[in-house]
Amino acid sequence: MARSLQQKAKNVTVLGSETQFIGIMQFKDELVITGKFDGTIEAEGHLEVDKRAQCSVDSAHAHSIIISGQVTGNLAAHDRVEMKSGSRIIGNITAGKIKIEDNVDFQGKVSMLDSMSENDLFSMNTADYKESLLSNKNT
Fold first, then answer.
1. Is 20 part of any domain?
2. DSSP 8-21
3. Of 82, 97, 106, 136, which has the most beta carbons under 10 Å away?
4. What does the angle CA 107 – CA 33 – CA 100 come to, to the nearest 5 degrees?
5. Rg (CA), the chain
6. Is residue 2 part of a domain?
7. CA atoms within 13 A on the CB side of 69
8. Which pLDDT score is estimated for 116?
9. DSSP bridge partners of 37
């Protein structure tokens, strides 16, 4: 798998193509999904959704997210979200940076994070996070 993010992960966990996971996934380094995932992702590390993967998330929070496969649900990345050619995303995205290649099927809204240092996305509860997004939007 080619990596478009410049990074050196300590540990890489791969959910294989024949793996189906339902529940809450938490990790600190890197997760690559090549199978099926249904649930919530709460991560400090990097998330990659392979072109063979099918993910349905309530929400997925990670430092960075690369999507080459199918994702349904809302995504938030402290650093960046990359949508690779051939990917299909249905849901809203919140990120510091976003990259969308040609031939991406994206249905949703994008919200850009203005200041990374003001609020730490991973230490806030959902209500506070939504409030900070609204206050940034109104300023």
1. yes
2. --S-EEEE-TT-EE
3. 82
4. 35
5. 14
6. no
7. 21
8. 46
9. 21, 55
- Is 67 among the domain residues? yes
Q: For the CA atoms of 34, 70, 7, 23, what is the dihedral angle to 10 degrees?
A: -60
* pLDDT of res. 127: 72
- Look at residue 117 in the predicted model and tell me its pLDDT: 45
Nearest to 82 by CA among 2, 5, 1: 5
Residues 6+ apart with CB under 8 A from 102: 85
* Coil vs helix vs strand at 40: strand
All residue ranges of the chain with pLDDT < 70 are 1-9, 115-126, 129-130, 132-139
Look at the chain and report how many structural domains it folds into: 1
Cα dist from 90 to 20, 66, 93, 116, whole Å: 20, 15, 9, 25
How far is the first Cα of the chain from the last one, in angstroms, to the nearest whole number?
41
Number of H helices, E strands in the chain: 1, 11
What per-residue confidence (pLDDT) applies to 3?
Answer: 52
Classified as helix, coil or strand, 46 is: strand
Residue 124 has what pLDDT? 63
- Name the token pair of 125: 């509860």
Question: Is residue 4 domain-resident?
Answer: no
